[in-house]
Design brief:
The protein has 187 residues and is mostly helical. The protein has a single domain, classed as Hypothetical protein af1432 (Orthogonal Bundle). 65% of the residues lie in helices and 0% in strands. The chain has ten helices and no strands. It has helices spanning 3-10, 16-36, 40-49, 58-67, 83-94, 100-107, 118-129, 138-145, 149-166, 173-186. α2 (16-36) crosses α7 (118-129) and α3 packs across α6 (100-107). The chain is globular and about 40 Å long. The N and C termini lie far apart (39 Å). The relative contact order is 0.13. Bound molecules: 2'-deoxyguanosine-5'-diphosphate and fe (iii) ion (FE) (3 copies). 2'-deoxyguanosine-5'-diphosphate binds next to α9. Keywords: Hydrolase, Iron, Metal-binding, Nucleotide-binding. It catalyses: P(1),P(4)-bis(5'-adenosyl) tetraphosphate + H2O = 2 ADP + 2 H(+). Residues 18-132 form the HD domain. InterPro entries: Diverse_Catalytic_Enzymes, HD/PDEase_dom, HD_domain, HDIG_dom, YqeK.
Length: 187
C-alpha cells in the first residue's frame, strides 16, 4: 500500500495531534530502517498504522480481546495496552494489511516482547523518540537510537517500567520479558 493511501485510511481514526505523532513515527521509523537495513516500506506501513485503534471505545476493544482470542491477561492490565493487539487485528480486517511482520510490529509496539524482530524494535523506539515527544530522557534515547538500536530499546523499556512503577501501575508480562531479554543479551 502506498504511503498516502495508508495515511488516508488512518487519518479519520485519529485526532489531529495523534495524526501528527503518527507522521513523526513514520519519518523516524523509515530513517531507522535505512540505517539498520530493515525493509523501509514495512517500517513505514507499520508506523502509519501503529496507533490505528488508539481511540476505539474500551468496550469495543474488550469485546475483540475476548472474542478474537487475544491474550486474556490483557484485561487485567491497563487499557492503554489494548490498542496495540486490537490495532493489529483491525488493520488486518479493516485496512487489508496481512503482512505478519507488519502486524507484529503493531501488536507489540506498546509492550514489546522477548525476542523482538528488527522491525518491532524500530517501531517501538520510533514511537518513543519521534520529534513530537518531549518527556525527560527522550534526548538521550534519540541519540542512542542512531548508534545502537538495542541499547536505545533497553533504555526505552526501562524508562517505561520506571514510569509505571512511579504511578503504581501494573507491568505487563511482555514488557518485563522485553526488559529481561535485553538485559541478558545486551549487558
Ligand atoms: O500510543 P502511544 O501513546 O503513542 O504510546 P504506546 O502505545 O507506546 O504506550 C501507551 C501507554 O502504555 C504509555 O503511557 C505507557 C503504557 N504502557 C506501556 N507498557 C505498559 C504500559 N502500561 C501498563 N500498565 N503496563 C505496561 O506494561
Ligand atoms: Fe500506541
Ligand atoms: Fe511505544
Ligand atoms: Fe504511538
Amino acid at each position: 500500500m502506498e504511503r498516502n493511501a495508508a495515511l488516508g485510511i488512518v487519518k479519520p481514526q485519529l485526532t489531529e495531534k495523534r495524526f501528527q505523532h503518527t507522521i513523526g513515527v513514520m519519518d523516524t521509523a523509515v530513517q531507522l530502517a535505512e540505517l539498520y537495513g530493515a525493509d523501509k516500506k514495512k517500517a513505514e506501513l507499520a508506523a502509519i498504522f501503529h496507533d490505528y485503534a488508539k481511540f476505539r471505545p474500551k468496550k469495543e476493544m474488550e469485546k475483540l480481546i475476548r472474542e478474537k482470542q487475544m491474550p486474556a491477561d490483557l484485561l487485567f492490565h491497563h487499557h492503554e495496552l489494548w490498542h496495540a493487539p486490537v490495532g493489529a487485528y483491525l488493520v488486518q480486517h479493516e485496512a487489508g494489511i496481512h503482512d505478519e511482520e507488519v502486524l507484529n510490529a503493531i501488536r507489540y509496539h506498546t509492550s514489546g516482547r522477548s525476542g523482538m524482530t528488527l522491525l518491532e524494535k524500530i517501531v517501538y523506539v520510533a514511537d518513543y523518540i519521534e520529534p513530537g515527544r518531549s518527556f525527560t530522557g527522550v534526548e538521550e534515547v534519540r541519540e542512542l537510537a542512531f548508534q545502537d538500536l538495542d541499547l536505545a530499546l533497553l533504555k526505552t523499556v526501562s524508562n517505561t517500567i520506571s514510569f509505571l512503577l512511579k504511578k503504581n501501575r501494573g507491568i505487563y508480562p511482555d514488557t518485563l520479558a522485553a526488559y529481561n531479554d535485553l538485559v541478558i543479551t545486551k549487558l
